[in-house]
Design goal:
This protein is of the alpha/beta class. The protein is 24% helix and 21% strand. It has one domain: Rossmann fold, CATH 3.40.50.
């Protein structure tokens, strides 16, 4: 991140290098979707690595509003959103980034099917929302595309892990598991599409 970046930085796309070779994307235009953008650290890191091609398009979805599942951010979301906008403005990658401010279950369905090369899910960590984000996003992922889940073990066994495991179980015939890490992230590849799109 640059010296101008404001806000929290957790894991970024550099964490993906051992699983998804960056060299496979260096000269390729990609379409990327991120669910849960926070201050923008991860999408900016993607814009500089996997999405480095000048024609790449990086979409992010986040409501940036207060809601009951995240009381720790109550009254802070407006400031986080404005900080995110400054970070995007200052990162030198603004033209690649398309911001969709809204809830993922409403915004994902508006996107094109079989469109994205990489989808990163880091939104609401309650299991039902993780599962819903994955199911809705899967139609939007190209065959051969990669889906990444953040925080697989976050909050104990009854949160993200349950939602991710539900998806992995239900979609096992349509995916290959690239990596599963009980403390960080899980990566899958889409091997076949839906019969009905």
């Amino acid at each position: 991140m640059s010296d101008t970046f404001e806000g929290a930085i957790y894991r970024t796309a550099t964490n993906w290098f051992p699983i998804i070779p960056k060299k496979d994307f260096e000269k390729k235009q990609i379409n990327y979707l991120e669910i849960g953008a926070f201050y923008g650290a991860n999408i900016i890191s993607v814009a500089r690595t996997y999405g480095a091609h000048p024609e790449s398009k990086l979409y992010c979805i986040d409501p940036w509003i207060d809601y009951k599942d995240y009381p720790e951010y109550k009254t802070k979301q407006c400031n986080i959103y404005n900080t995110f906008l400054r970070n995007i403005e200052n990162c030198g990658q603004k033209d690649k980034i398309i911001i969709k401010r809204g809830f993922s279950n409403e915004e994902i369905i508006k996107l094109e099917n079989n469109f994205f090369d990489i989808i990163y899910i880091d939104g609401n960590h309650e299991p039902e929302y993780v599962l819903e984000d994955a199911v809705l996003s899967f139609r939007k992922l190209k065959v051969g595309g990669i889906m990444i889940f953040d925080d697989y073990g976050w909050g104990g066994p009854d949160l993200t892990k349950r939602g991710i495991d539900g998806f992995l179980s239900g979609y096992h015939k349509k995916i290959s598991l690239l990596n599963i890490n009980h403390n960080t992230q899980t990566f899958i590849k889409k091997t076949t599409g839906h019969d009905k799109l």
